[in-house]
Amino acid sequence: MGWRDNMKTNADITRLRRLQTAIDRVRARLGISAPAALLYRASLDVCGDDEIVVEADGFGAATTSIVEGNFPMDYRTHYAKKFSTEEAALRVAESIMEEQVEAEAILA
Fold first, then answer.
1. 21 and 43, same structural domain?
2. Each residue of 50-101: pLDDT tens digit?
3. DSSP conformation class of 72
4. Which of 40, 43, 45, 59 is buried deepest, with most CB atoms within 10 A?
C-alpha cells in the first residue's frame, strides 16, 4: 500500500467519522437509539437462564426477545418479535415482567 492509498484511506475514515457524527445527531433529534443498543434486559426467573431483552434497530424500531444462555455472546432465542417503535417493544417487555403476561402469547 503506497502513500497515496494511505491518504485515500485517511480521507475515507475522516468522511466516515463526519457521517457518523451527523447520523448520531439525527438519532438524538428523533429520540431513537443506535443499532443493536440494548434498551432493556431482565431475568425472567430467579433460577433460570431465560432473559427478556429489547434491542434497537437504529431506525426507531426494536425487537423484544426471550433468550436463554450467555447473552449477547452465546445464547438461544426462544421468541422474538419486532415492533415498529422502541417504546412499543419496551412496553411489551415491561408487561411481561410486571404483569406476568405470557411471553409466548405476545412474541410467538
1. no
2. 999 999 999 999 999 999 999 999 999 999 999 999 999 999 999 999 988 8
3. T
4. 40
Q: How far apart are the first and last CA of the chain?
A: 51
Whole-angstrom Cα distance, residue 43 to residue 47? 9
**Residue 42: domain span:** 38-107
Q: Flag whether the pTM goes above 0.90.
A: no
Residues 73 and 91 in one domain: yes
Same-domain check for residues 45 and 98? yes
C-alpha cell at 23: 447520523
C-alpha cell at 102: 405470557
Q: Are residues 26 and 42 in the same domain?
A: no
One domain, residues 50 and 23: no
Residues facing 26 on adjacent strands: none
CA distance 59 to 52: 21
